[in-house]
C-alpha cells in the first residue's frame, strides 16, 4: 500500500473537513439538556459523527458528550481516541481563532494542534482503509471526546456504556510514542488548630502566600510578619539569608509590619527539580526566626517534610522505575494565616511499582502526629504499556518508516488522554521539530505535518487492523 500517494489523493478533502471542524467554537460552556458541556463541544461532536455517516461508517452518540465512528468488522476492537473540545482562545491572536487561515503552509486556528488536526488525520487514516474496501481483522473505532480539556467527563461517560478497545492510541501528544505516564495525585496537608501561645511571641507570622496551582512550581511568595522588637536584626538576617542562598527577595516595612517577598522560578509540576520554589525558600528563612507556636509548627513541618528534596523521600514515597523515573513532589500552593493555620497543596507523581495507597495510609498517620491531616486526596494510577509490547513496536516502526528519527518511545510525568484506554499509548501528532503552540495564541499546524501524521496513522492502522501484525508478533 502506497500510504503517501493515498493520503495525497485525499489532501483537499482532508483539509476542507478540518477547516469546518476548526470553525466550531468548541470551548466548554454552560450545560443544556442535550449538551452537557455546552453547545460548542456538542456541535463539534455532531460534526464528526456527520462526517462518519457521510462516509458510510457506523456512528454512535454517547450521552451527547462523546461518540464514535467505526469501520470494519470482527470480534476485536482497535481504538483511536481524539478530542474536539478546545481551551478558550485567549488574547493576542493575529487572526480570528475560529476563522481558520492558511498562512505560509500552516493552518492557524484554535485547536488545530490540540486536538482537531490530529483527530482529523486519524479519521482520514480510518476512512481511507474503509474506502479501500479491505477486510478488517480488528474493527477500527475513532472515539471522539468533548471534555478532554476540563474534567474528562466524556471518556468517563463513554466507557461506562461502551466497549473498551483491545488496544489503541491517542493522537494527542507527540511522536514517536509515549508508553508510560506517572500516577498523579494531589492533596493538601492541613494544619490542625493549636493552642495559642501562653507568652507573648517575639515574631508573629500573620500571612504567608505562595502559588496558585498544584501543577506549577510557585514563582513568588509573600509573607507578613509582626515584629515587636529588633526589626533591624530581622531585616539584617533576611539580607544575609538572601545572599547566602543566592535568592531574589525583597522587604518592606509598613506600620510595624515586615513584608517579605521572594522570587523563584516557575516550572511544570511534573518537573519540580528544574524550578525554584519561592514559597519553600521563604519558609527556610522564616524557620530560623523565633516565631509564634502555630507558625513555628508550620515551618518545622515544611522543613521536615517538604524542603530540600523533590523525590518523595521526605514523605516516604520515593521510588524509582528504570523507564518511568522517580517520584516527584511539587508544593504548588502554600497558604498560612494566623487564624486558620497552614495548608500545603501538593502534587505528587509516581512511577509504576510504588504502593501509593499504603504509602498514603502511612503518611497520614505520621503527619497526624506532627499536627497535620491529609485532605482532598485525588489520584490517578500510573499508566504503562511495556516497551516490548507489539503495539509499541508496530507504531514506532510505522513512524520511523516516514520520518528519519531514531528517538526511542518514552515515558512522562504528565497525563495524556491515552491513560483512559486500558492498553493505550499517546502517538503523535507533534514531530521532533514542531513548535508546540497548544493552548497558546496563534495555534498552528503545518499542512505537511498534518499529511505526514495521516500517512503514519494510515500505516499503523493498516498493519494492525487489516494485516493483523499485533497478533503475529505475539506468536513469535
Ligand atoms: Zn489535547
Characterize the structure shown:
This protein is an alpha+beta fold. It folds into two domains: 3-181 and 384-475, Aminopeptidase, CATH 3.40.630.10; 184-380, Alpha-Beta Plaits. Helix content is 32%, strand content 26%. It contains eleven helices and 24 strands. The chain has an eight-stranded antiparallel beta sheet with strand order 13-14-12-11-17-18-10-19, covered by helices on one side. The chain starts with a helix and ends with a helix. 47% of the residues are buried. It binds zinc ion (ZN). Residues 83, 114-115, 148, 172 line the site of zinc ion. It holds the Pfam family M20_dimer. Its cofactor is Zn(2+). InterPro entries: Bact_exopeptidase_dim_dom, M20A_pepV-rel, Peptidase_M20, Peptidase_M20_dimer, Peptidase_M20A. Belongs to the peptidase M20A family.
Descriptive labels:
476 residues; alpha+beta; Aminopeptidase; Alpha-Beta Plaits; eight-stranded antiparallel beta sheet; six-stranded mixed beta sheet; binds zinc ion; hydrolase; metalloprotease; Dipeptidase PepV; dipeptidase
Summarize the structure.
This protein has helices at 3-22, 39-54, 112-132, 153-161, 231-245, 278-286, 293-305, 356-368, 390-400, 447-466, 469-475; strands spanning 58-62, 66-71, 77-83, 101-103, 106-108, 139-145, 167-170, 173-174, 178-181, 183-191, 203-210, 220-227, 248-254, 257-263, 320-321, 325-326, 328-337, 341-350, 372-380, 383-384, 410-412, 424-426, 429-430, 444-446. It is α+β, with helices and mostly antiparallel strands.
Amino acid at each position: 500500500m502506497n500510504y503517501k500517494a493515498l493520503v495525497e489523493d485525499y489532501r483537499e478533502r482532508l483539509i476542507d473537513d478540518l477547516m469546518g471542524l476548526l470553525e466550531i467554537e468548541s470551548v466548554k460552556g454552560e450545560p443544556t439538556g442535550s449538551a452537557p458541556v455546552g453547545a460548542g463541544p456538542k456541535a463539534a461532536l455532531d460534526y464528526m459523527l456527520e462526517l462518519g455517516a457521510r462516509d458510510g461508517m457506523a456512528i454512535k452518540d454517547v450521552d451527547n458528550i462523546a461518540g464514535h465512528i467505526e469501520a470494519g468488522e470482527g470480534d476485536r476492537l482497535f481504538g483511536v481516541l481524539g478530542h474536539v473540545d478546545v481551551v478558550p482562545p485567549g488574547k493576542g491572536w493575529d487572526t480570528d481563532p475560529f476563522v481558520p487561515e492558511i498562512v505560509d503552509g500552516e493552518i492557524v486556528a484554535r485547536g488545530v494542534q490540540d486536538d482537531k488536526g490530529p483527530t482529523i488525520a486519524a479519521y482520514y487514516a480510518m476512512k481511507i482503509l474503509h474506502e479501500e474496501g479491505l477486510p478488517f481483522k480488528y474493527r477500527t473505532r475513532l472515539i471522539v471526546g468533548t471534555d478532554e480539556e476540563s474534567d474528562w467527563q466524556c471518556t468517563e461517560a463513554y466507557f461506562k456504556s461502551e466497549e473498551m478497545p483491545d488496544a489503541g492510541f491517542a493522537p494527542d501528544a507527540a511522536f514517536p510514542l509515549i508508553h508510560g505516564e506517572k500516577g498523579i495525585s494531589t492533596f493538601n496537608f492541613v494544619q490542625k488548630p493549636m493552642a495559642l501561645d501562653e507568652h507573648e511571641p517575639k515574631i508573629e507570622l500573620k500571612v504567608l502566600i505562595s502559588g496558585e496551582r498544584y501543577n506549577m512550581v510557585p514563582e513568588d511568595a509573600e509573607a507578613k510578619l509582626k515584629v515587636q522588637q529588633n526589626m533591624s536584626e530581622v531585616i539584617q538576617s533576611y539580607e544575609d539569608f538572601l545572599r547566602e542562598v543566592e535568592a531574589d527577595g525583597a522587604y518592606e516595612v509598613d506600620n510595624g509590619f515586615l513584608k517579605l517577598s521572594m522570587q523563584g522560578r516557575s516550572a511544570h509540576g511534573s518537573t519540580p527539580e528544574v524550578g525554584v520554589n519561592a514559597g519553600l525558600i521563604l519558609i527556610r528563612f522564616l524557620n530560623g526566626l523565633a516565631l509564634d507556636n502555630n507558625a513555628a509548627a508550620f515551618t518545622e513541618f515544611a522543613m521536615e517534610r517538604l524542603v530540600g528534596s523533590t523525590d518523595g523521600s521526605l514523605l516516604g514515597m520515593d521510588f524509582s522505575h528504570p523507564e518511568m523515573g522517580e517520584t516527584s513532589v511539587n508544593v504548588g500552593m502554600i497558604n498560612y494565616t494566623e487564624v486558620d493555620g497552614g495548608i500545603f497543596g501538593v502534587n505528587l507523581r509516581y512511577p509504576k511499582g510504588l504502593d501509593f495507597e499504603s504509602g498514603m495510609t502511612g503518611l497520614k498517620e505520621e503527619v497526624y502526629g506532627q499536627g497535620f491531616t491529609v485532605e482532598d486526596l485525588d489520584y490517578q494510577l500510573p499508566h504503562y504499556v511495556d516497551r516490548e509490547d507489539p503495539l509499541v513496536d508496530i507504531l514506532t516502526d510505522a513512524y520511523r518508516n516516514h520520518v528519519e528519527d531514531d528517538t526511542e518511545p518514552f515515558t512522562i510525568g504528565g497525563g495524556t488522554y491515552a491513560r483512559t484506554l486500558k492498553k493505550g499509548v499517546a502517538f503523535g501528532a507533534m514531530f521532533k521539530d514542531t513548535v508546540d503552540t497548544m493552548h497558546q495564541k496563534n495555534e498552528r499546524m503545518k499542512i505537511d505535518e498534518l499529511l505526514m501524521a495521516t500517512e503514519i496513522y494510515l500505516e499503523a492502522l493498516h498493519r494492525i487492523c487489516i494485516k493483523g501484525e499485533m497478533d503475529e508478533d505475539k506468536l513469535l
